[in-house]
Amino acid sequence: MATFLYKLGRLAFLRRRIVALLWVALLVLAGVGASSASTPKEPGFALPGTESQKAFDLLEQRFPGGDADGATARIVFKAPDGQKMTDAENKAEVTKAVTDLQKSPQVASVADPFTADAVSEDGDIAYILVTYKVNSMELTDKAKDALKDTGDTARDTGLTVEIGGDAAMAEEHAASTEMIGIAIAAVVLVITFGSLVAAGLPLLTAIIGVGIGISSITALANVFELGTTTSMLAMMIGLAVGIDYALFIVSRYRAERAEGHSPEEAAGRATGTAGSAVVFAGLTVVIALSGLAVVNIPLLSKMGFAAAGTVVIAVVIALTLIPALLGFAGDKVLGRKARKAAKAGAHSAAARTGAEGKPNGGTRWARFVLRRPVAVLIAGVVGLGVIALPAASLEVGLPDEGSSSPASTQRKAYDLLSEGFGPGFNGPLTVVVDAAKSEDAKGAVDDVVERIDKLDGVAAVGAGPLNKAGDTGMINVVPEDRPSSLKTEDLVHDIRDINSAVRADTGATVLVTGMTAMNIDFSQKMNDALVPYLALVVGLAFLLLVLVFRSILVPLKAALGFLLSVLAALGAVVAVYQWGWLSSIFNVEQPGPIMSMMPIFMVGVVFGLAMDYEVFLVTRMREAYVHGERPGEAVVTGFNHGARVVTAAAVIMVGVFAGFIGSGEQMVMMVGFALAIAVIFDAFVVRMTIVPAVLALLGHKAWWLPRWLDRVLPNVDVEGEKLQKQLTADGDTDRELARV
Q1: Could you write out the DSSP letters of every residue in 498-520?
Q2: How many other CB atoms are there within 10 angstroms of residue 40's CB atom?
Q3: Phi, psi values for residue 644, rounded to 5°
Q4: What b/e string do you get for 690-723 counting C-beta neighbours within 10 Å, with b at 16 or more?
Q5: Which residues share a beta bridge with 561?
Q6: Could you tell me the strand order of the sheet in which 472-479 lies?
Q7: Do 290 and 543 touch, CB atoms closer than 8 A?
Q8: C-alpha distances in Å from residue 148, one per residue of 74, 125, 162, 184, 192
Q9: How far is CA 414 from the centre of its chain?
Q10: Element spanning 422, H or E
């Protein structure tokens, strides 16, 4: 592989104008496709195989036109002190609001609180329930503005008015956080390279790759039902790996130039060696993202595949466009001292002989670890182990409006409804009774109501009318506790447990759905998928790394180190967002369950980035070991050439992810914190500390591979051993390969 990529790098360098034009043409083509595509519709959220999804599908089938998936909004009113909502003046304002909402676009129905029993017992609080014909993602700005204007008009009369429900969800704007990440990346790259041109190349190629990826996703959004969240994930991952991969190759190019090689030769060697690491690092990310299909949630699977496609684009750009741009940049990509040395022809003979002057920080750190490997290893493992302890108390769930900012209208509406109608009112359960096989459908529904009423945790239960066919009934159940509580989750399971008895007695089937039940099923599905996902991703990556490093213990160490860093990151997330530690520092307004999608999402993203650092750092060690250095010397060589680059890549990623902590949106803040802290633990504690300590203790055994396996495995030559032999044998390599 190294030989092939070497030739590819030289070809891209020599044919740089053609390569650059091809990528610009692809960017323009993708942009035209995106601009000509119709506005993408948000895909529906489905949970195949869950009871809540079966019940939801049954409702759509048996109650046609019921807008089961339509967005809802609740405008909550509270009367001023000393007044009631039933007072004539206040009642008139609410009635006017109902009339205005009935004229709003996309509205399916509006429930008058004075005829729909939507006034609290003490008369202080009332609410209007608005149901829309489309889901919340398809609501137009006109519909949202009409809802907001109705609330503002009523608020001007002196009433307290707040709006909740998914129709009132605030749109998240992540552009500012992305710009923060790019700005941090630019600063770190300038410091790392000491050259604006060298710093600009990774940013430019990452932006081009993301532009092609996002434009392609937009162009194909309606064909494959891809939502806006897919573009967001692809953008975040694409920027991360795009900058990393370009950074690796540009850094290796500068090192090859410092060795005295011509620009063309340096581009070929950088692509052949660092490019090999990029290919396999990219494969691990693709595996991690594609593995999201294990969860069996269509939306997540599509997000993973689309983001994996963006990673593939980033890899190909790094292998072709970077060498081409290096050809345009010339010596401007080098630092000031290196440019002066290049002009004077004083390329570092010391570097070629290994007799360098003052060792850099990576070399000094590696030597420190090699002197005290046991102490460093124990400190790293114990430290991460202690931080991981809170992960044993992990509670997952989907945040509801009760976890929104106390200053938001959604949270205020949630609190008012809890005050007037009880905490469980914000998360009612819909129980569907399928009585198609029952002789008495009405009797079956009444039997289910009676059984549910006897369960613990039920505040209220009531049945609606049967459908037109008379074979299906709906029961509304209001829990005593808030939607995200364990008591409410237990109630959902208790209702589902009565199904077997109901079926035996009446022939009817009981199914539980509603947003609260779907959240519970979603969390359970994510929990059930986490172990298979880990096994698949880590297992495939282990096999891939065995192929790369031709070792058993190095890939095993990489996988175990990743698991340790992920557990430590989960522990930190639980401590901050579930227990509330350091809540004032991280602006955690209400500790609660961890978002159920966060653990598996974090595993996928961090695993890809962690393997990037592992492959780049350890490949350089493997390269030195194959070329004759002793194990300890190889570790020092790897850190001498790779520590600065890996540190820069990790700092960039931490900066990008940490930017989301200040977004103000609780879920986004949690994901940003989790990814940032996970990268810190994995890059600086595992890869930069535990890895060299383990390799120092293993010595030659680290690179042991059974002979039978060595014969079976294809030699992909990631470390460039075959390439080095070929270059040495050729003698005048530049002239020979120029002929080719």
Answers
A1: THHHHHHHHS-EEEEESHHHHHH
A2: 22
A3: -65, -40
A4: bbbbbbbebeeebbebeeeeeeeeeebbbbbeeb
A5: none
A6: 458-463, 472-479, 429-434, 509-513
A7: no
A8: 11, 19, 9, 37, 49
A9: 28
A10: none
Residues 533/288, Cβ–Cβ less than 8 Å: no
d(CA 125, CA 115): 14
The label of the residue with tokens 């519970």 reads 520
pTM strictly above 0.70: yes
Q: Fill in the amino acid letter for 457.
A: G
* Buried-exposed string 661-679: b where 16+ CB fall within 10 A, e elsewhere: bebebbbbbbbbbbbbbbb
Q: How far apart are CA 289 and CA 291, in angstroms?
A: 5
- DSSP lists the bridge partners of residue 474 as 432
Question: Both tokens of residue 471?
Answer: 């074979």
Q: What are the distances in angstroms from CA 501 to CA 84, 334, 453, 496, 498?
A: 45, 76, 15, 10, 5
CA 356, distance to chain mean position in Å, is: 42
Residues in the chain: 740
Q: Could you report the average pLDDT of every consecutive run of 10 residues in the chain (740 residues)?
A: 85 93 93 77 70 88 70 88 89 91 87 86 89 78 88 88 79 54 79 81 89 86 69 77 86 85 88 84 84 81 86 93 90 71 52 53 89 93 94 79 74 88 87 90 91 90 85 89 85 93 91 88 84 84 82 88 90 90 78 80 79 80 83 88 84 79 68 88 92 91 87 70 62 45
In the chain, the amino acid numbered 626 is: V
Q: Looking at 260-324, which runs of residues are DSSP E strands?
A: none
The answer to whether the beta carbons of residues 292 and 604 sit under 8 Å apart is yes
Do 105 and 143 form a contact (C-beta atoms < 8 A)? Answer: yes
- DSSP secondary structure of 332-382: GGS-HHHHHHHHHT---HHHHHT--SS--HHHHHHHHHHHSHHHHHHHHHH
Distances from the Cα of 308 to the Cα of 38, 348, 416, angstroms: 24, 40, 44
Nearest residue to 567 (alpha-carbon basis) of 680, 675, 678? 678
Residue type, 584: S
Q: How many DSSP H helices and E strands does the chain contain?
A: 28, 10
Q: Which amino acid belongs to residue 107? A: V
Beta strands in 505-652, from DSSP E residues, in sequence order: 509-513, 594-595
DSSP string, 121-183: TTSSEEEEEEEESS-GGG--HHHHHHHHHHHHHHHTTT-EEEEESGGGPPPP--HHHHHHHHH
Tokens of 350: 């010391």
